[in-house]
Amino acid sequence: MSLIVPTFDSTVIVREAEAEVVGRAPTTVRLLADSSATGGALSTQRVTLTSGADGAHPHWHAKSAEMFFVLDGRAELLSGEEVVAAERGDLVVVPPGVPHAFAAAPGADADLLVVITPGVERFEYFRHLGRVALQEAAPESLLDVQELYDNHFLRSRAWDGRR
Length: 163
Description:
By secondary structure, the protein is mainly β. 9% of the residues lie in helices and 40% in strands. The chain contains 2 helices and 10 strands; from the N terminus they run βββββββββαβα. Strands 1, 2, 3, 4, 5, 6, 7, 8, 9 and 10 form a 10-stranded antiparallel β-sheet that branches. A hairpin with a 2-residue loop joins strand 5 (65-79) and strand 6 (82-87).
């Protein structure tokens, strides 16, 4: 068992009105606290998905677990080869190395708090995703930053066959 001892000395407070927003409906990401703000403890975002929208395609992290807490609505989450249905108040934590993905459930919206721990500097990754969504960067460019952001893409039959 490893122990992460965060190294920061002041409370992190992020007001909703001050959070950077990346993207727009159907997928909006509010950047809350990155790893550098929490001394490496975590990186966290709030992801709002409308009308069955995808949040993240199947991927895995070598060094971090990822937690999803459903603030409102209904979501589908891939964990390994299982697609889990989650609704308001549900928590799903995916261990390092396990393939995962998430989306709003078909015909539903979802509002999720997403936490990666230990933290990885990821805000620039979400900004990159925003550029891809706006067609300012090619989707293939994400393959070039997989190691940098510990975000490794893969295919999943379970995820592809869910709808």
